[in-house]
Amino acid sequence: MLEVNFRDGLAKVASWEPKAKQKVRTPAVLYLTSSRAALFPGAEAMVLGPGAPLVEAGEGPVLIDDGSDGADIPAGASCPSYLADFVKDSSGTSSKDGRILVVGPRPPEKVPDTVEVAVAGNIAGLLGDPKRLVPFMTALRSSVGYGRLILAPNAGEPAHMALLAYLGVDLFGSLPLALAARQGDLLFPDGRYDANEAWTARLCHCPACTARSKEKAGPEADYASALMHNYHAALQECRTVRHAISRSTIRELVEARVRSEPWLVAAMRELDLRHFETFERYLPICKPFLIACSRESLHRPEVARFQMRFREWYARPPSAKVLLLLPCSARKPYSRSPTHRAIAGAVDACKAPHMVHKVVVTSPLGIVPMDLERFYPANCYDIAVTGDWDTPEVKMIQEGLGHLFKNGNYSAVVSYIGGMPFLAEAVEAHRRAIMLKPEDPRKKDDLASLTSALDGIFENIGVDGAQGQPARRKAEDMASFARFQFGPGGEALVDKVAFSSGHLKLFKGGKQTGALTEDRGLISLTMEGGETVKGLGRHVVEIEDFEPTGTIFAVGVKGASKEIRPGDDVAVVRKGELAGVGVAVMGGPEMAERRAGRRGAAVELRHRRRSTG
């Protein structure tokens, strides 16, 4: 049995029950114990091979037999013998209960319902080769689905764990740890070290390395110490990876860990640039924060998704006819920073503030309209700021501005940014452009120049002075946000907004359709809003014929829109009628997986409609 506890892209923390009343929390290392492999007292999951010492099941590690009772391993499968009790290979021949599928170079098109674990038997031959490893792993996950585990029996070095977990590996083997020890290497999260050099430099204070200093050295003793060190290092890193997934920071950990070997960096880039669609479908729609500290952060899936929605879904508020380009700020959302509060005052002092469209130019997102400042990751990212702009950043910003100019149809453009000389070419291409380069965007003289420049523009293009324009503009901003969240047509959720009880509430035709909450940075739907979303045909979960209560489990889901991501607000439909609204726990593709034994929450309901039948 398998139950997913936390999701972050292809990585997940799950509870797997290989035996009754014994659970393995993944990601995990399966430590082999036999007459040739020493017992590791700290193991969370242990494989008992031939000649293994007696280990009592109980409060200690989960125990898995090695299958030494004569069970057959499918011909040609690169699979440890301890999986024999469970194995079912891709040709369909079964050994015992068939809970484990051994996968060859090509993932199977169809996976039997009994399978809980897919074994990447050829993983050792793919390590170090990103062009083969990443396509194989993404294809394997697409083949077996999200609700199954992937075991890499020949991969388990600490330096590789974060990336491999990010690619979807759930279970690691201990054989690489023993091999490294036999080669005289100690393994760390940042790579391999010669054991004698590491011991001399006292790089590690794990129990094995601490005990070694008190023992007589020798080849076998050194091997035993190195092996125990590698076991400890793998266990610690596995727990670190697990913790990062539960905190939604696995990407930050991966970017730190891949620096140990060039092929790890190349694999991360391969995933970002060529397998975005597969990865993004499992990525939560919002997280607590995003830290961008490397060149690779420009291409991480969360950033790419924001930019994709900006290009494909975003439409500026209709009243906003003058584009005002602004610098970013350390504080998020931008409007809470001292700089942006000062700028807002200067804009409010002009003749028509409701006609000004404030847009932030930033890295790693590129272009962020202020009406989207509360949408992840614009609401919580942090990046190293030096004032220098790399070529990829410049290209990203120029392309974003080009898209904004082409689709925004602005009457005028004002740039209020210093330190970005590359903006001039893009901005001055507009027929009515003003370049302001403030020394300090909060200085009174600079702010007065901004107000004056805006007033000069409005004298030329005219001012829409209809009564109620400020309130209308707030509704337009929220409509743009709704479109960005739910896709084209989402703006139908809003024609009026009101601030109440700490939330920005959305109304349509006098009825509340939702509220923008600070904690999630997303619109939370009411039942009235659910009817609107249901009519769009997106963000819809169809359930079997039962009356939902607080939680809808995967087994009760009949179908789900493919664009749903974990954390999205959704409309729940039963027999064609709206049954409730809530937050998706799973993504749409995972909900749509149709197989026996599916477990876990799919949707947490906020509101539901009671049946009258």
Q: Would you write up a description of this structure?
A:
The chain is an alpha/beta fold. It contains 17 helices and 30 strands. The strands form 7 sheets. It has an 8-stranded parallel beta sheet. A 6-stranded mixed beta sheet has the order 26-30-29-28-25-27. It is globular, with a radius of gyration of 28 Å. About 3% of the residues have low confidence.
Predict the CATH topology of the largest domain.
TIM Barrel
Mean pLDDT rating: 88
Number of strands: 30
Q: Give the termini distance in whole angstroms.
A: 36 Å
Topology:
Layout: E1 2-8, E2 11-19, E3 22-26, E4 28-33, E5 45-48, E6 62-65, E7 87-89, E8 100-103, E9 117-120, H1 130-144, E10 149-152, H2 158-166, E11 171-173, H3 175-182, E12 185-188, E13 191-194, H4 195-200, H5 207-212, H6 219-246, H7 250-257, H8 262-274, H9 276-280, E14 290-292, H10 301-312, E15 322-327, H11 338-348, E16 356-362, E17 366-369, E18 381-383, H12 391-408, E19 412-416, H13 423-428, E20 433-436, H14 444-461, H15 469-486, E21 496-500, E22 503-508, E23 511-516, E24 523-525, H16 527-536, E25 540-543, E26 551-553, E27 557-560, E28 569-574, E29 577-584, H17 588-591, E30 601-608
Helix pairs in contact: 1-8, 2-6, 2-7, 3-6, 6-7, 11-14
